[in-house]
Amino acid sequence: MLGFLKEPVVVTAEINVNLVALTVVGLISRLWGLCYPRAVVFDEVYYGQFVSLYMKRIFFVDDSGPPFGHMLLALGGYLGGFDGNFLWNRIGAEYTMNVPVWSLRLLPALAGALCVPLAYQILIELHFSHCAALGAALLILLENSLITQSRFMLLESILIFFILLAVLSYLKFYNLHRHSSFSGSWWFWLLLTGVACACAVGVKYMGLFTYMLLLAIAGLHFWHMIGDQNLSNVSLLCHFLARGLALIILPIVMYLSFFYVHLALLYRSGPHDQIMTSAFQASLEGGLARITQGQPLEVAYGSQITLRNVLGKPMQCWLHSHTNTYPIRYENGRGSSHQQQVTCYPFKDVNNWWIVKDPGMQQLVVSNPPRPVRHGHIVQLVHGITTRYLNTHDVAAPLSPHSQEVSCYIDYNISMPAQNLWRVEIVNRESDTDVWKTILSEVRFVHVNTSAVLKASGVIGASLPEWGYRQLEVVGENLSKGYHQSMLWNVEEHRYGKSQEQKEREVELHSPTQMDISKNLSFMAKFTELQWKILTLKNEDTEHKYSSSALDWITMDTNIAYWLHPTSGAQIHLLGNVVTWTSANAAALVYMCLCLWYLLRRRRKIYDIPEDAWQLWVSAGGVCAGGWAVNYLPFFLMEKTLFLYHYLPALTFQILLIPIVLQHLGDHLCRSVLLKSMFSALLVAWFSSVYFVYCTFSPVTYGQPALSLAELKDLRWKDSWNILLRKQ
């Protein structure tokens, strides 16, 4: 039984020294002096705010993308013991001692460092030589812009890491597919492809570009498999299901999980939750939840309520009235009803309270047992403080003359009778007998006499003049003009009225209510709302000093000043290696020209290169040239403020194309020994120039040493570069 002990246990391992060395130098280049400068650098002022909110568990919405990248940055802060207490108010602000700068910048730096060995492995999996793979890795290593972007609390290096990991994983999976389908390693690399794609999309939506590219490549490969007669129908089905599970289902599940963790961490109310619905706000600890906790769920006749407009743009507001009346005549000469004003007010106020009244009864209190209001019921809305009824009639609204004025009715004893009956329509109902619910129900009020719908027109930009205290206009809108979210309202604060006398009722309106009913949103409901806000919430795009167009990126006609030392000339810029960028553009141009040339020649049955070399050329171009195209061209269609760092994912793919083109030229166009020798000499000279430019711009890549005024002027190789010159 113990015979196996007679022989020693031997473990053998293959170590790729190139890979280990590249990883080490990559780590050194990105981690060296990581705490310098100990000050806020460019967009750290933006991402740092979110890290602080994570540390304090305060909810926020970032319209720039999903939460996974933010959570990774917050993980660095958590590992460093950051308490979230720092005021991220300006670039260049010195970090206090409680801010773990090294820890916050660690994950982006590690991601940037690992991109170096990933580039090496990608070219190996594309079946190029170790020399070409080493060249690709060194070009990534010595690219100044990638170094700068990876040394601070920014997301681009993390995005590029997951993009390259997804590409490498798929290539390894595809290469294993030919001889070891459904093996453990086959499944590992396939699943890792899906995980990396999900992480790339979870960091920034730019990750979608590479994800779509890999899905297209996987679809093309499967299409070729369908034509393989050696594969049975069952085998093809298994391959299809495996790819669908790993490349579609798994990324979707992971994407949802990012939001699940995000929402689980951020359970406290904060300033950002005001753009969310009342139901979402009530699910957070503090804020609205503190006010609405335990309110009655079902709205009944006699209920005292506040009505919040569902749209919430450009600000949240509540249905409101006050004792002031519309002016008899407006500035343009049009007349009004001179009734009591009804507005949408963007602040909580006692004048936001309304009482739901049964038109057939006089009482303004909830009966015992309460009689709930259901979809389709007719109600009157009585203003709590002034006791006047919500009314509309055939009089033009003050700012929207094609809509009806909404007022609280005052009986002037003239030929303008009250028209104050409203039909309650629950838009998000499950059945036509649904009860009107606090927070949860989105309600439309349809005027019985005129069929006009109560709408907050001021929500989309119209505020009243001084006589209306600059509050937002409320109108009766004709249903034929179409549906809009500004027509929807939900009950936010709610109590069951108990006081029939007006004096007692006013005291009641000023006091909070406490009843024991909870209203929790499901995760999917919160995810759907948050995802919609991220996709539709647009901050006003303003021209930034360092913004640029996509055309500026190819020739690097722009730069970004990330940091400037307050006294010395030390500064950090996002600037690329000029030789690398120029070579990448040349490689892309040569690749496209050669592809066109080969295609034309092959059409004429002239084959300049062997078939296996052609397949290698096409597959490498599909990954590298395709990766550059899908990560660059979409920016021409985007209406947003663009910066040079948006080009870095595309640049990474373009850099990978350089050694591919160089090896192809050396193998197939330099046929004589003399040409090969000359080509090798040119490569050495070219790579030396890459290293020279890297060293020349290192002071503005790492921020040290500080340069003199003359040295800074010498770095301004292009007139369009904004190198900061300070008189010393």
UniProtKB/TrEMBL annotation:
It is found in: Endoplasmic reticulum membrane. Keywords: Endoplasmic reticulum, Glycosyltransferase, Membrane, Repeat, Transferase, Transmembrane, Transmembrane helix. GO terms for cellular component: endoplasmic reticulum membrane. CDD domains: beta-trefoil_MIR_POMT1. It holds the Pfam family PMT_4TMC. SMART domains: MIR (SM00472). Belongs to the glycosyltransferase 39 family. This is Protein O-mannosyl-transferase 1. It comes from Campylorhamphus procurvoides. The lineage of its organism: Eukaryota, Metazoa, Chordata, Craniata, Vertebrata. The gene is Pomt1.
